[in-house]
Amino acid sequence: MPQHLFDRKTDSFFGSLRYVGYVLLPAGIILGGSPWWSGADKAQMLSVGALLFLLGVLFQSTHHGFQIDFRDRRVREYLSMFGLKTGKWAPLPAFQYVQLSSNLAPAHAHDHEHDHDHSHEDPAPLVPWYTIGLYSRQQEADYELRTDSREDALKTLQLLSKQLNIPIQDKTAN
Question: Which of 49, 87, 110, 118 could make a disulfide contact with 78, Cβ separation 3.0–4.6 Å?
Answer without folding.
Answer: 87
